[in-house]
Amino acid sequence: MAPRSQPTARQVRLGTELRRLREAAGLKAREVAGLLSSTSAQMSQVEAGLAGVSEERVRRLAAHYACADEALIDALVAMATERTQGWWEEYRGVLPPVFLDVAETEHHGTFLREVVTSHVPGLLQTPDYARAVFGYMVPELPGSELKPRVEHRMRRRSVLEREASVPYETIVHEAALRILVSDRRAARAQLAEILRAIELGHATVRVIPFAREGFAGAGIEMMYVGGSLPRLDTVLRDAPHGTAFIDAESQLARFRALLNKLEKAALQPVESRDFIHRMTKEL
Length: 283
Fold this sequence. Notes:
Helices cover about 50% and strands about 10% of the residues. It is α/β, with parallel strands linked by helices. The protein folds into two domains: about 10-80, Orthogonal Bundle (434 Repressor (Amino-terminal Domain)); about 85-280, 2-Layer Sandwich (Endonuclease, Chain A). Strands 3-2-1-4-5-6 form a six-stranded mixed β-sheet, with helices on both faces. The chain is elongated, with a radius of gyration of 21 Å. The protein starts with 8 loop residues before the first helix and ends with a helix. The model has no long low-confidence stretch (mean pLDDT about 95).
């Protein structure tokens, strides 16, 4: 089978975890290749997410690496054998691959914790708000590219609204709620949409007010996605080249600590809801 030309973030993560198991066992790729009647090059493709791997091979590798963590092995098998084509696949070739990777990562998350300081969280945006954000890009996007971006962003909300919804908590700075990315009508509708999500139980929203003393984290933005095991958690961060997928345990620990620090600066959920209500009246 020919190598994948563009593996998904989930496929890359599976390969990364298999490589980490091999390295923890102190083995080289060439030493393991013979076990699978393979080559070092093919092993490298598996560990880069460029080639698929069967359940039988995942279990054989785990046994060879003396991995006794059955929960981890089962989770990796699930990643290797899951064949569901999610709604995001409709946008393959239409939007940049990272859009699909974000949606797939959220879909498989066990919980979502987000921090935003400059924009309303994407999962809570209205079409008008999203259109204004994407429409501000330089060079300006033609309508044929703008429309699918807005549509994709709206469909991402399915993780919050489906029957087996993903628990979602977001910390939003007051600045993100007050910036008029469009007009006042759109701003009022956006705040109303956030309140609707709160009332329906789709989101837990906590606000950091301008007046909060001792808050110096205005530059921190991230989405922390819980994996089926803590080891498989992922942090998504916007970067100049696109969204970065972070999964090194040392960095995950750092971002967990940052989240906990930011939570201490934020209002409680009920206070935050009332705060947003007051903002709506001011508009």
